[in-house]
Amino acid sequence: KASNIPEDDSARAPVDIVVVLDVSGSMSGDKLALCKKTLELLLRELRPQDRFGLVTFSCEAVLEIPARKLSEVTKQAALRKIKSLRTRGSTNLSGGIGMGAREMRAVEEPNPVRSIFVLTDGHANCGIRDPKGIVELTKGCLGTSLKTGDDAPITVHTFGYGTSHDSALLQDISQATTGGSYYFVESDSDVASA
Hints:
It is built from 6 helices and 6 strands. By secondary structure, it is an alpha/beta fold. A 6-stranded mixed sheet has the order 3-2-1-4-5-6, sandwiched between helices.
């Protein structure tokens, strides 16, 4: 939780974070606005040795920002990109998770903490639609069996936006990897505590 990060977080291990963001039509309005606030808060907390990447998905997944270390220039570019995002189309959750996993696994010399954050309402209607299929895809892409050498395992944290999100699916996705967690984001006050 962001509120638990100490003011002097210099002892915190460097992190690699790839955000998989739902920009489908069902995320229009408050949901996408809350996602943008979440990402702005996240970027403020990241330091130069941390990596950040962004995948968006509607009917197709798009690598918006390759996972890379954050200079002040790249952080500002990421904030501009996030502000420019608009909703469109259907929801290919499996495509987003798959591309996020590929981007995370492509990082050379990964940091000790590696996480994928999935921000969505969880209503898959394009790509793999079956909840069990989406969970199996997540396990296949990111399961502990893929841990090699000294690389840290990749955890998945899911963030459900709006009161009608598919909480069961998002909980199952977060539990597909060791150490994952699920958060419900309904309002501005939930953003800082997630």
